[in-house]
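Quick question about two entries, pasted in order.
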Amino acid sequence: MSSRPVSRPFSGTIADRIARSMPDLTPSLKRMAEYVLAHSFRAATMSIDELAAATKVSVATANRFAHVLGFSGYQGFRAELVRGFEAVLAPVERMRDELTRKATSAEVMAASLSDALANLESIRQGLPADTCEHVVTAILDARQVLVAGFGDSGYLAGMLAHGLELYCPQARSLAGVGGPSHGARALFRLTPRDLVVVISFPRYVKDSIIIARKAKERGARIVALTDSPTSPLAALGDLRLFLMATSRFAATSNSTLLAVIEALCAAVARRAKNSVKSAADVTEFVLPWLTQEDRIA
């Protein structure tokens, strides 16, 4: 009698299916099962060839593993494995799709720029006028403006704080060398007169959501810069700007978000009192650090 494992039509999670099949698995299939259980996220990113290579089995064996777990083929197995990781894996899948197409470096660069242009045009056409006015007013009326963002958004938070500091009594980024816990210390003295701008896009960083929640508990107003009403940040925002920032080559198009940040700073500068004088004063102050060509009188 053959000891070859037989495909079963049972359902359940990948872990459930593996647990039920484990007693009947051959050594090579058991090796695959153990790898998938220990590295489920990594396995979810792999093609059948990549998973076969990682577990030192043939592609045919990898396909048989999917059948043993009750799937019609590897694609069905991988689709189930991806379930729950969709948002996190979306950038990986987009990049995988792009890498199947032949393209020159110039074409790839052009495609990335096209993504940013499409995002910005969508944002430009859909800017909610009332919300934009309320956000600018909230920034200018605040006793202090704190900007929170971590991961890639930490750099964007720094740019926004830098752009606002000319026009606000106090504007600073909570992203720094001390990490989120150090930034959180600034929340302890928040009042309802303060504003916290939180930037969070897929993949959402948990620290940004915690900061927003704690700031709200202290009574500060929250401006949420995020991608959609389903974002975990959306429900915490008193004011929300939903910004399309998709990219074929990364989790988020940071160039899109930077352009929006510059646009927001421009709107604040337009409404701020003495904005020209502030800009002139700062320029005069930093003049010794600016390189100028020698001029002959």
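Here is the second entry:
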Amino acid sequence: MTISTSSQTDLQALRDEIRAEALKLGFDACGFASASDAWPNGQWLREFVAEGFHGAMGWMEETLDRRAHPTGMWPDARSAVVLGVNYGPEHDPLKALEDPACAAISVYAQGDDYHEVIKKRLKQLARWMHGRFGGEVKVFVDTAPLMEKPLAQRAGLGWQGKHTNLVSRQFGSWLFLGSVLTTLDLPADAPERDHCGSCRACLDICPTGAFPAPHRLDARRCISYLTIELAGPIPVEFRPALGNRIYGCDDCLAACPWNKFASLSAEAKFHARETLKEPSLAELAALDDASFRALFSKSPVKRIGRDRFVRNVLYAIGNSGDPTLMASVEPLLSDPSPVVRGAAVWAARRLVGQAQLAAGDEGDPLVLAEWAQNLEGGDVVLARD
């Protein structure tokens, strides 16, 4: 059915019908926002990139014009249907930091890849909307250059906290976001206002001081960026602060007091797999490419590849203080990957001091630099702002 009238009553009924269908498909939150109105977030993004806070994420600068406004992605877009799916964890993620021999993996990556799960539902909703009301539709879930968090705030799903992530009064910090842009001109929901007040919990808990000010993130210091986006060796000054975090970091999310209203996700695909609930660092260090792919099948972790992942595991081993884990480090000193070999050198020095190992015929300059530091001894202590 195609809309034949633009009366406010009819549009409100249309919106209610879309919301009901979204909830039926398994979304936990649904809001509506204008996709064409002016907003200030594009300028904020330009300042973020101008200050270099995006680090090595060159794609962010390359797509800056398209990211600056929803219509940069699609000039004909009039409205956004913004959807949220609760991925609330069963336990406090900060508990995983207490056992240095086990790995801490970000909550969102302990289950199936949310991109695939949510994209399927978004497509179902978009097809239903098109068939029911007409209009053109396009779906987005994180991988496209669309600023979903400010759009979600405009749609009333939550607000961007001082850590720049979305906070919901109903779901706390744990909402996956997706959007359906449409040419239909739908009434917008009231935007959610900021409820952070004077709280600084998310800022103060950050292990690397990644927030130069409230609502400002320097990704170059963020553990999620360092363990996921950065391809080469992680700067030495940040390695001790990683602790046992090997993929992402939930500290600023978990510290938020609004999580007292959060609940366990109803979606079984987002529940933590048993194999990823604080897995052994020794077992993870032994992964080759095939076993890495098998372990992280249908997981977002797979996108960083085995070498970057084992690099992170070695930094965690170096932070463990457990010299028995040298048995996991030694084979990796001759790993085919330079980034793994370099991390193994650092881990060895952390575990046994000036390791009685020789660089041999090592030819990679970055690995040789790790060996040179190994011979000099000492660690760089992270200087927090």
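Reply: The beta strands are 29-34, 79-86, 104-105, 137-140, 159-160, 166-167, 175-182, 245-247. The radius of gyration is 23 Å. Hope that helps.
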